[in-house]
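Q: Please design a sequence for this.
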């Protein structure tokens, strides 16, 4: 059947049905499209809210700009030296028969350190003492006879000369013995022993090195402009390299009156007041000499500084964000640095955590959070998880 014939057969009712079906399809498509659009709009809104909630806050620790006394100082290096450092030499030849003390021991003035064989010298001294006694007895006898007029004046003079000669011989014998019994010339510590028991030594050979370590000294050669501000008795901080966390307290003991023309420096001698067991002669030290002090100046911790391109910056906390500020600095000590501009008293600056900050960054004050947790009775700083403890059951 042809198309025209089919239309005529079905007629108008069939045409109405076809148009109704097409309209239903269009309406259904519009409704589904509207629902999808609404869903997309809701998802976008959720993502925007989520982005707003997930603002990154950098955890930091803050410090307050406060007034401190900040010194200016000059640092110089040197080594600890004994006030007296003496090498004892042998004056006589012979064999070492006894060693009384070893390295590291402290001795008093006059204590025997070492003995060289001296039997012969001991005998000679005893003989000289006997001769002196005889000479003194003869002199007394001559004096008695001369007083009674029974002897000539010449006999008295001869007896007197014999007594004087015996006296000197006794002293020479005593010196010969002393040269073989070596004693400490001053109280100190034995730094070195150079001989062994049984060793035969010669005159001029080293025996011991004795040092006077009470007190120790440091000799520095400082520029004239630095020495100008020093005074004898001024306190000085001395830090041994072996133990820099335990500084020694010293004083300026002597200032040389003459400038070395070759170096334009003066010798300054420091004395260490107390020396712990770790401080030894020869230890390398760094002396810090205060030359000026700025009193009650605005100061912040040194580690709050952020050096950048030859300048110094700090991050100043303002509410829950930070502002990057350039600062001008002055004197500094081990912990604090003077701020001449850029920070005022009471400003809070970031002391820890600067590496992750930019101008305007949001921050979390860790110290404030710990204080808040502590006030809530949570010293661990951990947030509650909503679970009940044994005490919560009541």
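A: Design:
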């Amino acid at each position: 059947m042809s198309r025209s014939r089919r239309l005529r057969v079905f007629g108008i009712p069939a045409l109405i049905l076809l148009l109704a079906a097409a309209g239903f399809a269009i309406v259904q498509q519009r409704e589904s499209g509207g629902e999808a659009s609404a869903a997309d709009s809701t998802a976008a809104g959720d993502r925007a809210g989520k982005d707003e909630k997930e603002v990154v806050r950098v955890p930091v620790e803050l410090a307050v700009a406060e007034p401190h006394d900040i010194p200016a100082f000059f640092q110089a290096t040197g080594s600890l030296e004994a006030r007296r450092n003496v090498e004892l030499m042998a004056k006589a030849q012979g064999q070492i028969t006894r060693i009384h003390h070893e390295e590291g021991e402290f001795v008093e003035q006059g204590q025997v350190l070492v003995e060289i064989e001296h039997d012969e010298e001991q005998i000679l001294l005893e003989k000289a003492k006997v001769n002196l006694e005889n000479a003194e007895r003869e002199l007394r006898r001559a004096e008695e006879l001369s007083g009674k007029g029974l002897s000539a004046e010449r006999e008295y003079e001869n007896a007197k000369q014999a007594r004087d000669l015996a006296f000197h011989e006794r002293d020479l014998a005593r010196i010969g013995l002393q040269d073989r019994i070596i004693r400490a010339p001053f109280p100190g510590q034995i730094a070195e022993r150079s001989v062994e028991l049984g060793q035969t030594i010669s005159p001029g050979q080293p025996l011991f090195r004795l040092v006077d370590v009470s007190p120790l000294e440091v000799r520095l050669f400082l520029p004239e402009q630095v020495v100008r501000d020093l005074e004898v008795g001024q306190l000085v901080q001395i830090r041994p390299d072996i133990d820099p966390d335990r500084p020694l307290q010293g004083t300026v003991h002597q200032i040389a009156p003459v400038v070395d023309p070759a170096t334009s420096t003066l010798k300054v001698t420091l004395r260490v007041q107390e020396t712990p067991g770790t401080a030894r002669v020869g230890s390398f030290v760094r002396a810090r000499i205060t030359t000026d002090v700025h009193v009650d100046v605005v100061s912040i911790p040194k580690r709050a500084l952020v050096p950048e391109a030859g300048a110094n910056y700090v991050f100043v906390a303002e509410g829950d964000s930070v502002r990057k500020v350039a600062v001008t600095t002055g004197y500094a000590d081990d912990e604090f640095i003077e701020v001449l501009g850029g920070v005022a008293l009471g400003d809070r600056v970031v002391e820890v955590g600067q590496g992750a900050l930019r101008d305007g960054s949001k921050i979390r004050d860790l110290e404030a959070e710990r204080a808040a947790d502590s006030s809530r009775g949570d010293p661990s700083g951990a947030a509650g998880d909503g679970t009940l403890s044994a005490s919560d059951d009541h």
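Q: Thanks. Anything notable?
A: The longest helix spans residues 12-53. Confidence is low (pLDDT under 50) at residues 1-22, 24-34, 41-45, 381-394.
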